[in-house]
Design a protein that fits this description.
This protein has 305 residues and is α/β, with parallel strands linked by helices. 31% of the residues lie in helices and 19% in strands. An 8-stranded parallel β-barrel has the order 3-4-7-8-9-10-15-16, surrounded by 6 helices. A 4-stranded antiparallel beta sheet has the order 5-6-14-11, with no helix packed on it. The longest helix is centred in the C-terminal third of the chain and has 15 residues.
Amino acid sequence: MPQLSVQLNRLKLANPILVASGTFGYAREMAAFVDFKQLGGIIPKTLTAAPRIGNPPPRTVEASSGLLNSIGLDNDGIDAFLAKTLDYLLGLETAIIVNIAGRNTEEFVQMAAKVGQHKQVAGLELNISCPNVSGGVDFGTDPRLAAEVVSQVRNACDLPVIAKLTPNVTSVVEIAQAATEAGADAVSLVNTFQGMAIDWRRRKPILGNVIGGLSGPAIKPLALRIVWQVAQAVNVPIIGIGGIQSIDDVMEFLIAGATAVQIGTANFYNPGLAQQLVTELSEILTEQNCQSVGDIVGTLQIPAR
């Protein structure tokens, strides 16, 4: 059997199949569909320092081959999560990576310090790329700010740090380089693309927040391009995200340069997909005569020009 475990600097995962923040709730909702210990890891919905009620409805709208959402980081706040939910998650026998979003560097640092007290947590994913809240993408569009928040979080806690980056910039490579130089163990590529939907008969936007984040199969070619570009330029493990709904999609991201992947929008219509993909990944690696996941990571062959 091929070796499925992967290493993202200080973060080791049993396999490279993760479920993305915001698409898997706090896992309780998925208990009827998934054997959690089969997953490489779970990333619960984003936490903020204080509770948030999120954006006004409508919050989601179906798009061509995708989903537009403007949830707005609706959550009960980090203190409620640590008191009521974390123990349940840590009992699921899989890696738990806590996703946090701060309004400023100080909030990121304070939340990281709180989470860091729980040594069973596998890692921290810094959401510096949410397009649905005021200031949500500021850290992910400015290399200096991205480096600052990563560096200070590294100083505040001992957990592995993943920077989740936005595609809504001219060059994601530049942001990834800054995050890596500041000490990020890995980068997640990518968060959603900004988009909107319009009811032309009523002359009004459909989403209550006007603009939302586009995810799903529609963004996969764009996400693949970004993963490949960053893999060529930056020496950091990459977690690929964007429209993954089959084992072929997983393989494309791995060959483009990702070491692991996150399943996002597909969880809404096929909650058992991530577990299914773990089995299929083992089968396809065997078929390809690979001894480990690492044998295929970054093996894309570009024709000579």
